[in-house]
């Protein structure tokens, strides 16, 4: 399933992205331009 996660660089959002990918979903992440993208390093999101 294709899923859009808003707030993907936050604590819950980054955990959710990892979990959804682990379960086989396609994840598109949405975050503010000023957000720290380190939380998503190594995670295969678009």
Rg on CA atoms, Å: 9 Å
Largest sheet report:
2 strands, parallel
- Total DSSP E strands: 2
Strand order of the largest sheet: 1-2
Q: Which percent band covers the strand fraction?
A: 15-25%
Secondary-structure element order, N to C: EHE
Please report the distance between the alpha carbons of the first and last residues: 14 Å
Number of helices: 1
Shape, per Cα inertia axes: globular
> Roughly how much helix do the residues carry, as a percent range?
25-40%
Mean pLDDT: 84
Uncertain regions: pLDDT < 50 for 5+ in a row? none
Structural class determined from secondary elements: alpha+beta
How would you summarize what this structure contains?
With 46 residues, the protein is of the alpha+beta class. The protein has one helix at residues 11-22; strands spanning 2-6, 26-30. The two termini are 14 Å apart.
Describe the structure.
By secondary structure, the chain is of the alpha+beta class. It has a domain at 2-32. Helices cover 26% and strands 22% of the residues. The protein contains one helix and two strands; from the N terminus they run βαβ. Strands 1-2 form a two-stranded parallel ribbon. Helix 1 (11-22) links the parallel strand 1 (2-6) and strand 2. The chain starts with a strand and ends in a 16-residue tail after the last strand.
């Amino acid at each position: 399933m294709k899923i859009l996660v808003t707030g993907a660089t936050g604590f819950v959002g980054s955990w959710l992205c990892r979990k959804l990918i682990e379960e086989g979903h396609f994840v598109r992440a949405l975050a503010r331009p000023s957000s720290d993208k380190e939380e998503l390093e190594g995670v295969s999101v678009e």
